[in-house]
């Protein structure tokens, strides 16, 4: 996709002052003026046609609304052995998700060597097994395209690391060589393998830093030339249609011996610098940070409205799953009561499933060891797996549960499988749609994909259990059969997405309050930005019918109230909610969005 038409350059001094402030903090030993000129040239190269706006976009007019919903998918989640998978994905969106999805997150589509794409060989190329930049540009013309900027590490087969192994520039300065005798016990570890990897170079043996795997070698942001490389990559992706940039594993990018090497102040400053670039870009860019950490740490990436536009709502999946497995919303409710609204001009990225597992660190402070152990035991009974992380004392703790979300909800902790998998699963998706923020749906959630143990055995990684590849013709046959799990789940979830898209009270920044309805129910009150529409979104998280007294909701007198999900007018003092039933009670019912 070509760059935008040339536009007048803004007043340079203000932008330069902002960039100089960022760069002076990150690289105090370097000239901020010189680095600022290099950053501007990297992001707006001469003659590229991409120009900056004179001022940042107003926070009061963000480029998102209640009509937004995101699909998360690999580029090859759908295959047929004949067509480029990216063309099949585009067809699936147009045929089966029409009018429901506004944005598509295509997980790393670059050449890679491990971790299903997150060990990137070349950020400027598309894996030929998936398709081409042209295919992605076509997706970007119809949907907001979200792509990963894998900041923390590159593949050990990348050109940069090959140069490092040969003592050649520029790669020789792009990695972190640490004396193995160094005390690294303070470093926060997401994986149990040794942190350092020994490699041979012409200048002798070196030990490089590898946070996630020995094939994923961490890069050295203490070298400003490396930062400039990533800024050029950002510009390249933007010029090829990317509008939402996901900063993968960003929490780990800055290393300082003697610290935890996570959430370093200079890491936050790098995010602020990227936000400044995004705010001055002509394109309507959105930055989202991926930080699978405890809730308070995660929220820090909003900064003072000057870092990420959005953060992943990582605490939601484990707490929502816990509520449905136990039939008790107490901990989910406690977490939501303590959640602040997103800052003006920002939003929460809500999800329940992704290409990774159900992270357990984000539930710290809410789920104790006993609750986690019970949840793990229950999900193992439904075919799930567990991945561990290393601790400073050499021990290991559960890091995430690896399982398909549909199979996660086969039953409950008390009764096991119970035949209410469909109802429980749809309840989970409906609660997500009601939360403040934008909902994101993993393709395998929309398709009720079961655990793929065969893929785990073939790939050798627990996370492969939820990275199934559907044969597209076979999938279409299942979707054409109304009795299959795939057809039932997709139809009902899409119906609710389309209802949601027409409700101003579900704007990502609409007011939200948590209701106190007891452990069997979970409820939210949402109010539109103009205060015209209210929605009481309430879910029964148990396997038993539950009574809901409408007096407890303070429904406004004189208003006509309707349940958006059933279309039923509410004219009784009490409702009985079936197991896992959800209601969206509103005083201003809007039409569902028509298929586009």
TrEMBL record:
Keyword annotations of the record: Glycosyltransferase, Transferase
Glycosyltransferase as UniProt keyword: yes
Domain of life: Bacteria
SMART domains: Aamy (SM00642)
Entries under InterPro entries matching the protein: GGa_phosphorylase, GH, GH13_cat_dom, Glyco_hydro_b, O16G_dom_2, Sucrose_GGa_phosphorylase-rel
Domain Glycosyl hydrolase family 13 catalytic: 68-416
Pfam families, per the entry: Alpha-amylase
The keyword Glycosyltransferase appears for this protein: yes
Protein name from the UniProt record: Sugar phosphorylase
Source species: Aquibium pacificus
């Amino acid at each position: 996709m070509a760059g935008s038409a040339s536009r007048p350059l803004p007043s340079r001094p203000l932008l330069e002052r902002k960039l100089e402030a960022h760069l002076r903090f990150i690289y105090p030993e370097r000239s901020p003026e010189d680095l600022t000129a290099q950053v501007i040239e990297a992001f707006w190269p001469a003659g590229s046609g991409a120009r900056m706006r004179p001022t940042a976009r107003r926070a009061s007019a963000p480029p998102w609304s209640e009509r937004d919903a995101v699909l998360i998918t690999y580029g090859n989640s759908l295959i047929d052995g004949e067509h480029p998978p990216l063309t099949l994905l585009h067809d699936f969106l147009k045929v089966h998700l029409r009018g429901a999805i506004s944005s598509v997150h295509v997980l790393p589509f670059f050449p890679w060597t491990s971790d299903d794409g997150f060990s990137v060989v070349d950020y400027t190329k598309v894996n030929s097994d998936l398709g081409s930049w042209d295919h992605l540009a076509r997706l970007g013309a119809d949907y907001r395209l979200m792509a990963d900027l894998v900041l923390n590490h590159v593949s050990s087969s990348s050109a940069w690391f090959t140069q490092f192994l040969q003592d050649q520039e520029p790669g020789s300065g792009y990695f972190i060589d640490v004396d193995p005798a160094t005390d690294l016990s303070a470093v926060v570890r997401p994986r149990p393998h040794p942190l350092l990897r020994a490699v041979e170079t012409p200048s002798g043996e070196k030990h490089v830093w590898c946070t996630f795997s020995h094939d994923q070698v961490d890069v050295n942001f203490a070298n400003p030339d490396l930062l400039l490389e990533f800024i050029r990559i950002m510009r390249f992706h933007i010029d090829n249609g990317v509008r939402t940039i996901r900063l993968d594993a960003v929490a780990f990018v800055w290393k300082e011996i003697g610290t935890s090497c996570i959430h370093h102040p200079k890491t936050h400053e790098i995010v602020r610098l990227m936000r400044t670039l995004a705010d001055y870009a002509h394109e309507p860019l959105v930055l989202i940070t991926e930080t699978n950490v405890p809730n308070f740490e995660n929220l820090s990436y909003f900064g003072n409205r000057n870092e990420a536009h959005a953060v992943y709502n990582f605490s939601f999946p484990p707490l929502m799953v816990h509520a449905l497995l136990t039939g008790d919303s107490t901990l989910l409710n406690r977490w939501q009561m303590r959640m602040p609204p997103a800052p003006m001009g920002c939003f929460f990225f809500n999800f329940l499933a992704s290409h990774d597992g159900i992270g357990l660190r984000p539930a710290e402070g809410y789920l104790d060891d006993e609750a986690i152990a019970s949840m793990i035991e229950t999900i193992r009974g439904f075919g799930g797996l567990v991945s561990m992380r290393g601790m400073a004392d050499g021990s290991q703790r559960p890091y995430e549960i690896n399982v398909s979300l549909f199979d996660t909800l086969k039953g409950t902790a008390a009764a096991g499988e119970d035949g209410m998998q469909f109802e429980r699963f749809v309840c989970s998706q409906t609660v997500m749609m009601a939360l403040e923020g934008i909902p994101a749906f993993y393709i395998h959630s929309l398709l009720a994909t079961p655990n793929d143990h065969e893929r785990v055995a073939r790939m050798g990684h627990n996370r492969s259990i939820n990275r199934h590849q559907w044969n597209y013709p076979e999938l279409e046959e299942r979707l054409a059969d109304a009795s299959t799990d795939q057809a039932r789940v997709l139809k009902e979830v899409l119906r609710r997405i389309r209802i949601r898209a027409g409700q101003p009270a579900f704007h990502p920044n609409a007011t939200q309050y948590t209701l106190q309805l007891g452990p069997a129910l979970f409820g939210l009150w949402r109010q539109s930005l103009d205060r015209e529409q209210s929605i009481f979104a309430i879910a029964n998280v148990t396997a038993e019918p539950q009574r809901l007294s409408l007096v407890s909701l303070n429904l406004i007198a004189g208003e006509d109230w309707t349940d958006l999900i059933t279309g039923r007018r509410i004219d009784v003092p009490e409702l009985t909610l079936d197991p896992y039933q959800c209601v969206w009670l509103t005083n201003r019912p809007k039409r569902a969005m028509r298929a586009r």
